[in-house]
Amino acid sequence: MAATIIAAVSHPFADLALARRLELAEAHANVAFVEARARLMPESGAAWMEAAGARAMFDGVASPLTQTFGLGMSGAVSADELTRIERFFSDRGAPAYHEVSPLADASVLALFQDRGYQPFEFTSVLCRPIDRELRIAPAPAAGLRVRTIGRNEVSLWGETASGGWSETPELASFIEALAAVVLDSRDVACFVAELDGHPIATGAMSLSGGVALLAGASTIPSGRRRGAQLALLETRLRHAAAHGCDLAMMCAAPGSASQRNAERQGFRVAYTRIKWRLPPARSGSA
Hints:
This protein is of the alpha+beta class.
């Protein structure tokens, strides 16, 4: 009996070149968000800067985007460059946060040790190759349709996205308020899944450097277990490939259900980042 051959996804080697692509893609997405925030809400003071090859961004003192991405990915980081970044945050009353790849230049860890930085959070960075013919979802449920949305549908996307977090009201209202910023961000595509014409789930992605960064996944409680997120994932990956991307990425808490679900769909952990913080008393003091 002939053996059954199962085609495997051929992943890129998890080296410095791959890490640079992934980190720059995420930095691009977050910079685009901060720029959109500054356009739509100038009173927010949203801003960003580039130093030592990293992007440092401010989106509000409590925003998870207020940090750097890509530090150490372009080579050695000097003490003066790190001081400049720290002052960018301290001038805005924000703590200095850096999310750093394990493939970053060793100079970063040496500087962190000298300045008393503390590690406090881990993130799995996952990726997988994509192409226009990719198929991961079974035949969609009757009446399920996925489509892109335009900027004139901000309310629809925001209400649906926040509906997926209705069990956490404070987070739901936060997400709905951000919808206009997400849709106004450059190089971002937003999607909605509709069941019998009613929106039940959302997804978004940012395209940069041939990499599609996936985010914005949310399903309203009554729409769950209908295959909406799987259909959204496939549609987004095929859309990204059609627009010149050969790689998709997403981020998740290590060992989480999100990571497990991503691995089931062909994603693989490329590396685990560590997020570092500078105690307030040290910010901008070096």
